[in-house]
């Protein structure tokens, strides 16, 4: 009898084993605590909740500043940028702030000189390919050179006001060489050289020099 009961219990246990080990059983489908934690850590945020770059962040501000700096005409290598420097120099001269005027004029000379060289190179590159484009770049080169010589002349006057004659003379000679002595700026530069005592001969064509020729 005892053996019969034991056999019944054993048989019942065997019937329960498939349920316990079945992959489709209730216990097999229930996630463990570690599984729940693991799955929670991999959940992605919905699109509406995902973070977007903050426009006020330092990195974003840096990019915006760089873009705005590049797009500003006065910061570009341009005629307008050089002319702005010239205007600032004129204001400094009016206030007799010759140190600032000298700095602005030197910067303007560099800008205009680079522009003249670059436009001249472009003009040569298009020559024989597109003469119209070549001519336009040549006109820009000439305009830039004119502005460069104006800045050079103004810088010479600043040096003269600062009693720096040795610095003024070479600049005046450069203007005459670049502009041609008969141009308006060339004549002014030569007159400055006379007033400085660097040259004694009057400008050719002056009424008081006719008897000397």
Overview of the structural elements:
It is built from 9 helices and no strands. With 213 residues, the chain is mainly alpha-helical. The chain has a domain of 128 residues.
Defining traits:
mainly alpha; 70% helix; 0% strand; disordered N terminus
**Strand fraction band?**
under 5%
Secondary-structure-derived class: mainly alpha
Tally the helices: what do you get? 9
- How many angstroms separate the termini? 156 Å
Rounded mean pLDDT is: 74
Uncertain stretches: 1-53, 65-74, 209-213
- List how many beta strands DSSP finds: 0
The gross shape turns out to be: flat
Largest sheet: none
The helix fraction, in percent, is over 70%
- Following the backbone from N to C, one meets helices and strands in this order, namely HHHHHHHHH
Radius of gyration: 42 Å
Write a brief caption for the model:
The chain has 213 residues and is mostly helical. The chain is 70% helix and 0% strand.
List the helices and strands and how they pair.
Layout: H1 2-21, H2 26-29, H3 33-41, H4 58-71, H5 79-94, H6 98-126, H7 131-161, H8 165-179, H9 184-195
Helix pairs in contact: 5-6, 5-7, 6-7, 7-8, 8-9
